[in-house]
Amino acid sequence: MTYTVRQAARTNDRPNKPCEDRIAATSDTFVVADGVTQNMDEYREGMTVSPAGQAAQITAESILSVLAPAADPTAAAPEAVKMAIERTGAYNETKPSAYPAAAVYVSGAIREGRLHFSYVGDSVIMLIRRGARIRLSEQQTAHLRVYGSTKGLSITKRELYDTITNNPDSPLGYGVIFGDERALSFLRAASIALEPGDRVIFSSDGIDQYLYYAPIGELATLSPDELLDRSVRYDEAPYNRYADDKAVVVVDVK
Predict the structure, then answer these.
(1) Which among 68, 133, 169, 208 has the fewest CB atoms less than 10 Å away?
(2) pTM for the whole thing?
């Protein structure tokens, strides 16, 4: 079995907001991390790197540093996430803020014909196999979105962080990496045998609607840059209100 790994990224269209997606990869291990958007008053004109972007960079590099040398990346995933939690927590101690800089991630590692994958948060892992679209990850904020997030629940962002974020006892709980060890409760890790013809897409949530609704033929054949080009039509109603950062790693198995 052989495979190719390609990647692409695009910046959002929001004023003063730098790209907060990060990709870290070797030839057989890859991580896409997505920095959690901060309050808009924390962004300023000319900003090129934000705390959320830094959290994504720390997360991507931490996860990769543990998974890349691992013979069994599924078994190593808790150690990788724990390192990311510790390092983002240390970073946040140097950057006090009302809300800590945070990130989510998806990862993949190929070992002896198997794809080991793991994730925390709401990014996407999609397997395209023989004309079928198979989600290997769940978006952990999906149930929160059904309720309309903070506005629909009539709660503040502070209440969200204090009662739902990283809370495994909340029915709306979801994972975010920023220094809170409870994020480990939201780690999901598994492996699957790869087959010739498979395509696996690892993506930040900037193209999630495109991945869910676009024709499968596009997803199975287009290059990473072409995927991002085609995703533009999903950056507006009824799918989204704006273009978010987009980062994608595409693995094609032969």
Answers:
(1) 169
(2) 0.96
Give me the numbers of helices (H) and strands (E) for the chain, helices first please: 8, 10
Place of tokens 């140097």: 94
Phi, psi angle pair for 144, to nearest 5°: -65, -40
Report phi then psi at 7, rounded to 5: -145, 160
Query: Which residue type does 186 have?
Result: F
Distance between CA atoms of 168 and 184, rounded to whole angstroms? 10
> Using the 8-state DSSP alphabet, how is residue 183 labeled?
G
Between CA 156 and CA 226, with CA 53 as vertex, the angle to 5 degrees is 110
The beta-carbon contacts of 138-141 under 8 Å, at least 24 apart in sequence, are 138/188, 139/205, 139/208, 140/173, 140/174, 140/175, 140/186, 141/174
Using an 8 Å Cβ cutoff, are 84 and 59 in contact?
A: yes
The residue among 13, 43, 45, 12 whose CA lies nearest residue 21 is 12
Q: What are phi and psi of 121, to 5 degrees?
A: 110, -150
Residues 219-231 pLDDT 10s: 999 999 999 999 9
The residues pairing with 191 across neighbouring beta strands, listed in sequence order, are 116
